[in-house]
Known about the structure:
By secondary structure, the chain is of the alpha+beta class. The chain is built from ten helices and 20 strands.
Amino acid sequence: MVPGYDRWTKEIDTDVVIVGGGIVGCALAYELAREDVEVVLVERHDLNTQASGGNAGSLHVQIMSFQMTLEDARWQRIIDGNVRLYMAAVRTWQELAPELDVDVELHVEGGLMVAETHDQLERLELKATRERAIGLESDVLRGAELFAVAPYLSERHVIGAARCPIEGRINPALATPAIARSAERAGARILRHTAVGAISPGNRGFEVETARGRIRCKRVVNAAGCGAGEIAAMVGLHIPLAAPEVLHMNVTEPTCHFVDHLVQHAGMRLTFKQASNGSLIIGGGWDAVIDPATGLPAVTRASVQGNLWIAQRIVPELGHLRLVRTWAAANAGVSSGPILGEVSGLPGFFNAVFGDAGFTAGPICARIVADGLTGRAPSFDHASFAIERVQAGP
Length: 394
């Protein structure tokens, strides 16, 4: 028997059904269970096996480099709203981590977005000004001031960097399972390897048909990540998701600790940080593919080489280390911010869907949806995250 596998095969009555066992679904189950809400979470695979377990564990807050050139006013409003959400997200992680039964390796030591050209540095100055107007602490370091903070950066190539003190890292392989265990201890029921086949109106609200039986509930939450469009379609709802973004990450052999920051690049695709065990985790949005033979994400040699080239260019000390692992994962195709809350005209059906920086925002998104489900005071102004905004967005 698979550990954690529930033998149930008949029918269940509950208050809330959460579809999706990633970071958002597990965090929401925990939020609800500790408020004494009866909740069942169903996951068609095992917990944390998709994007939530396949990401690199970066806690992003800054405006990302590819967003700095988006001039459309609607995009700027979305980006500003996302930054405010990420700020709240880091605080939520800091509150949540001490409640868990293991050290999830949460470190908020700051982030640096490096520049190699004067044009990139000028854009970072504009970005920092905009971020300060939003309420995010942000400044730009140059020359000796920068290398005193980050001596591992290449003095040959790097001329400056934007600094954000509340960025950091966490270990996704530890964090989501720990939250799920906390949810179960609080009373949540988690059904692994339980695919949803249909959702229909029922006497109490909804009936959720699965391969193992029926669940009757008052409310349903769609936290299915890349599968969110499929779940929404079961109730006649269209979520405008793009195709999943398939990306890859790299891990080196462990070495002595020398990197204290989440490092990004102002003009190229790079994220770089050092894990608690000494390994360097390198990513930044390099493309992977879906293997036609298996249907699973797979890395490409060109992306591995390109990613490692820019990483070594920025952090020369990387050059003598061996690559020990590389992997790929698919990210839900929601680039315009989260889709959160109850659907207007469909009482009892809630969305909890996120794309970019989804692991960063997972617990705060769960908390926002839990506010709506429990009727408690809102944790965050989330009116701009309604599905109607996304359907009409840029």
